[in-house]
Every structure is written in structure tokens, then in C-alpha cells.
């Protein structure tokens, strides 16, 4: 009887084991069951200069991402009946005629997230700062629709650059698009650098997009950001000049997508495109290689649409859409001061104003070399703090009149006393508007200096001594008028008593330090 019981138990255990094994096998089969997948592929006809021509991709869509051997990707750009023109997003050294190409079914996207702050990446999100892989919360397409009109709010808050000439005369608002243009090597990038550095402790995220710049210049720019602690709130996107032209083409769009992530979180963001002239040239190069019809200055006809759909993404959102803002400062290079060329006129018409840098002022060491007469802000005046409007209400007009008078005075014309006083005052105003690079000023410091020059406190000081006198005024007002400084920072209107207090404090500081200011 015991043998029969033991056999029954063994049989039951064996049956249970077989059933468990069957269930495990069924589960594995269910999880690893093969699902048929259709994958369309084509063949490379030719490749070179950042362009590939591919046949056989009958189901490809416009701007779809295609993959070459080795993981190299490209954008399907020209959809012709016989072939597809592809913009390469990487080196094609190992790709030859006859290589297979497959469709991916997605468009070009880029990682976004808070982890990108402080990082240096390329437009494909590959790290360039030797700090390991890029962490991200999600991926978003580089080409996105601009916010609709009904989602936009008026631009009401200023973006302080720390530069007296800009904040006082050409103010920029958060959500505005302010163009920086001028000939090469006269300080366009320096204005952007000062603006980024000045955003410390102002709760503004910055994105700097370098397009086709020399590696040494980009490295120097990043080093200065690190020296001033600005990389903590900045992301740098670099499309090198010696890299694939396709990366230079998508760089500003990828950088804007990264910036939009922060804007949609309700934050204020500043994005700098340095520069869109090289971006336009890269697009012209790709278009001509793809045999698209050239237009004015050999640029394709849709270059205007390319830049307009990029810059239209910069705006100030209404509160129900997050309330964030994206301020754009595109940089372009002119040739021989020709602002009527194709790309400058395009971007001047797209943006909300421009800061024009003059080679003549640069050669005379009036830095930043901003030509006040040719510069304008079509939005920022409404966002300017009340203290600026009180102090600099007619400064722009009087400064423009001074420049006209100074031009006539060069011909040796005999001038009356009032005209001579106007010219002398104007020279001091121009000297006050000069500012060393990497020395952004606080709002109270700017107000104190501008009020001092408009009230004539610098009239008896030699022009070359103005910087020393300015430093004394800034120090005195900062140390002795902290209550008024707080009112200025809080956006309150300056009363007559406040203006008198600033003027008296500045005059006393100049009087006490008269000998020190005048000594060589």
C-alpha cells in the first residue's frame, strides 16, 4: 500500500512539473512571438558634399529621417519621382554607391530637459564637453509649429542686457526678437555674451547656438561663460564650421526646441543664434547641390520662410499656456555696412528691431560700437522700467541731434555758444554710453550715470576722465541710496525727490574726488 501511495505522489509531482513547464513555454512564446514588420529600403546612387541621392524609397515622406549603414542619418529633402535628395547629418566616409538606406518613420528630434543646462552639445545631442552622455526627459521634433496668436501675450517685462546703450536707448523685452547686425569682428558676439552674463540671478535660462563658427572662438566663448558662472543656466549648441552642412542647417531649430521646453515650463528664456548669415549660406549650399532653383544672390526662394518660421517661435505666452517667454537675439554679418543686402533685409523685416554696430565707432574705440541712429526697438520701449523713461526720455533725440551737429562742425563752421555746449554735452553722453566688455551694470548704476550726464554733472570734466567720474558716481549711489536703488529695481516710478537725491549724491561724490578724477 505504501508503494502505491508513493507512486501516486510521484506521478502527481511529475504531472505538476510538466504543467509548469508547459505554462513557462507558452509564456515565453507569447512574449517572443514574431510580429511581421515591413521595412522599406533603398539604394545610394551617389554621395558627396553632405548630399546623398537615393533610389527606391517610394514611401518616404518630406523631412523624414533615413538611416545609412553605420548609424549615420539624413533628412529626406527632395522628393523627386526617380530619386530622393537626402541631407546628411553626419560623415559619410563609409557610405558608397550601392549602400542600403532604410526609412525610420520619424522626423529629426532632439532631447530636452533640465539636465541639458550646463552642457555643450551638437545639434544631434551628442556631448562635446567630455561629461558623459546627455540625460533627458523626452525628445521633441526640431521643426515645430509656432504658438498661435491667441496663445500669445503682450511683451511687458524688460530683458536687461547690462549695457547702458541698449537698456536706455534700445530696450529689449522678454519675448521680443532683437537683431544684432554689423560687419565682421566689431563686437556682435560680445553684446550677446554680456547679455547672457547679466542674466545671473534674474531667473532667465539661456541657450547659445553657434553656427559655423571657428572652434577656437567657440571655446573662448564657453570659457568666459564658465569663468563668470553663466554655464549654470546656459545650454550651448555647437554646429562646427568643418562639420556636416546638414548639422548647421538644423542647429537653430534644435536649439529653439530645447529653449521651448523651458518656455513651456513657465520660464523666461533667451536664445542667441550666432550667426544666421552662416546658416543661410549653409542652406544655400545644400539647396544648390540639390539643384533647387536659385533666386536673389543665389539663395533659394524659401530662405525668408525658413528664418521667419524659426523666429516666429519666439514669443511671450499667456498665463494659461504657462506664461513663459522666449527672447531671440539673432546675429547676422553685413559686408561693407550693406544692410540692404538680401539676408539683412529679410531678417530686419522679420524681427522687432535691430542693434546696428558701426565700424566707424569701433575704429574710434567707442565700444560697444552701437549706432543709435540706425538701431531701433519696436517693442522694448513699452517694457522699459519707469526709471529709464524718466531719465532718458529725450536722450535718444538729443543724441541724434548731437551727431548731426558734430558732422557739420568738422567742416570748420563757426558755431554759436549754445551749439558748442550741445556738442560738448553730446561727446560726454557718447563717452558715458561706452562700456568695457564683460562689465554689465545694474539698473540703479545705469540710472545714476545717465541722470548725472543729462543733468550736466560731467560738463566740467574732461572727456577722457569720464570713466573715472562714472565709477565714483556708481559707487556712491550704490552705497548711499540703497532705498532708491530698491525702488528702481522694483519698477517703481522715480519721484522728483528721488532724482534730486541721486543728483546731489553724484555731485557730492564728484566734488569729493575731483583731484583724484583729474590726475593723470
Q: How are the SSEs placed, and which strands pair?
A:
Elements: H1 2-31, E1 41-48, E2 51-55, E3 64-67, E4 73-79, E5 84-88, E6 100-107, E7 109-112, E8 120-121, E9 138-141, H2 164-169, E10 179-182, H3 188-197, E11 204-211, H4 215-227, E12 234-239, H5 245-264, E13 268-274, H6 276-289, H7 303-311, E14 325-333, H8 342-350, E15 353-357, H9 359-363, E16 376-377, H10 386-391, H11 395-409, H12 417-433, H13 443-454, H14 466-480, H15 482-489, H16 496-512, H17 514-518
Parallel strand pairs: 8-12, 10-14, 10-15, 11-12, 11-13, 13-14
Antiparallel strand pairs: 1-2, 1-6, 2-5, 3-4, 3-6, 4-5, 7-9, 15-16
Helix pairs in contact: 5-6, 7-8, 11-12, 12-13, 13-14, 13-15, 13-16, 14-16
Can you walk through the features of this model?
The model has no long low-confidence stretch (mean pLDDT 91). The radius of gyration is 31 Å and the shape is elongated. The protein is an alpha/beta fold and 520 residues long. The chain contains 17 helices and 16 strands. Helix content is 41%, strand content 17%. The termini are far apart. The protein has helices at 2-31, 164-169, 188-197, 215-227, 245-264, 276-289, 303-311, 342-350, 359-363, 386-391, 395-409, 417-433, 443-454, 466-480, 482-489, 496-512, 514-518, and strands spanning 41-48, 51-55, 64-67, 73-79, 84-88, 100-107, 109-112, 120-121, 138-141, 179-182, 204-211, 234-239, 268-274, 325-333, 353-357, 376-377. The chain has an 8-stranded mixed β-sheet with strand order 8-12-11-13-14-10-15-16, sandwiched between helices. Strands 1-2-5-4-3-6 form a 6-stranded antiparallel beta barrel.
Amino acid at each position: 500500500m505504501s508503494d502505491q501511495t508513493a507512486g501516486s505522489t510521484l506521478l502527481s509531482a511529475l504531472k505538476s512539473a510538466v504543467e509548469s513547464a508547459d505554462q513557462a513555454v507558452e509564456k515565453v512564446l507569447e512574449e517572443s512571438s514574431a510580429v511581421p514588420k515591413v521595412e522599406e529600403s533603398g539604394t545610394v546612387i551617389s554621395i558627396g558634399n553632405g548630399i546623398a541621392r537615393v533610389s527606391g524609397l517610394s514611401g518616404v515622406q518630406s523631412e523624414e529621417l533615413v538611416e545609412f549603414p553605420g548609424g549615420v542619418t539624413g533628412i529626406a529633402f527632395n522628393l523627386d519621382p526617380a530619386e530622393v535628395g537626402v541631407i546628411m547629418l553626419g560623415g559619410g566616409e563609409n557610405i558608397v554607391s550601392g549602400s542600403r538606406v532604410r526609412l525610420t518613420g520619424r522626423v529629426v528630434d532632439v532631447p530636452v530637459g533640465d539636465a541639458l543646462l550646463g552642457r555643450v552639445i551638437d545639434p544631434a545631442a551628442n556631448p562635446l564637453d567630455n561629461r558623459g552622455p546627455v540625460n533627458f526627459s523626452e525628445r521633441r521634433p526640431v521643426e515645430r509649429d509656432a504658438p498661435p496668436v491667441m496663445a500669445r501675450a503682450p511683451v511687458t517685462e524688460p530683458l536687461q542686457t547690462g549695457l547702458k546703450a541698449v537698456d536706455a536707448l534700445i530696450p529689449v523685452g522678454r519675448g521680443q526678437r532683437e537683431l544684432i547686425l554689423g560687419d565682421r569682428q566689431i563686437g556682435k558676439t560680445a553684446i550677446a555674451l554680456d547679455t547672457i552674463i547679466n542674466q545671473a540671478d534674474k531667473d532667465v535660462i539661456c541657450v547659445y547656438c553657434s553656427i559655423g563658427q571657428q572652434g577656437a572662438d567657440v571655446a573662448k566663448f564657453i570659457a568666459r561663460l564658465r569663468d563668470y558662472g553663466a554655464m549654470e543656466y546656459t545650454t550651448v549648441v555647437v554646429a562646427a564650421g568643418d562639420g556636416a552642412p546638414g548639422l548647421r542647417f538644423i542647429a537653430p531649430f534644435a536649439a529653439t526646441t530645447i529653449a521651448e521646453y523651458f518656455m513651456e515650463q513657465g520660464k523666461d528664456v533667451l536664445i542667441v543664434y550666432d550667426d544666421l548669415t552662416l546658416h543661410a549660406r549653409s542652406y544655400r549650399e545644400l539647396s544648390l547641390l540639390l539643384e533647387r532653383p536659385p533666386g536673389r544672390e543665389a539663395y533659394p526662394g524659401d530662405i525668408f520662410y525658413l528664418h521667419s518660421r524659426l523666429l516666429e517661435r519666439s514669443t511671450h505666452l499667456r498665463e494659461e499656456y504657462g506664461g513663459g517667454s522666449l527672447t531671440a537675439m539673432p546675429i547676422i554679418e553685413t559686408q561693407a555696412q550693406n544692410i540692404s543686402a538680401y539676408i539683412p533685409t529679410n531678417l530686419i523685416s522679420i524681427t522687432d528691431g535691430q542693434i546696428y554696430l558701426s565700424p566707424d565707432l569701433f575704429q574710434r574705440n567707442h565700444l560697444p560700437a552701437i549706432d543709435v541712429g540706425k538701431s531701433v526697438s519696436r517693442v522694448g520701449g513699452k517694457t522699459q522700467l519707469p526709471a529709464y523713461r524718466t531719465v532718458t526720455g529725450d536722450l535718444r533725440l538729443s543724441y541724434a541731434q548731437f551727431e548731426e551737429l558734430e558732422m557739420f562742425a568738422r567742416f570748420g563752421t563757426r558755431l554759436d555758444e549754445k551749439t558748442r555746449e550741445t556738442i560738448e554735452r553730446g561727446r560726454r553722453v557718447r563717452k558715458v554710453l561706452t562700456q568695457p566688455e564683460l562689465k554689465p551694470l545694474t539698473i540703479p548704476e545705469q540710472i545714476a550715470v545717465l541722470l548725472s550726464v543729462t543733468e550736466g554733472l560731467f560738463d566740467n570734466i574732461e572727456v577722457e576722465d569720464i570713466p573715472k567720474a562714472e565709477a565714483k558716481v556708481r559707487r556712491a549711489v550704490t552705497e548711499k541710496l540703497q532705498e532708491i536703488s530698491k525702488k528702481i529695481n522694483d519698477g517703481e516710478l522715480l519721484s522728483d525727490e528721488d532724482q534730486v537725491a541721486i543728483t546731489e549724491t553724484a555731485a557730492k561724490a564728484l566734488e569729493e574726488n575731483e583731484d583724484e578724477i583729474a590726475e593723470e
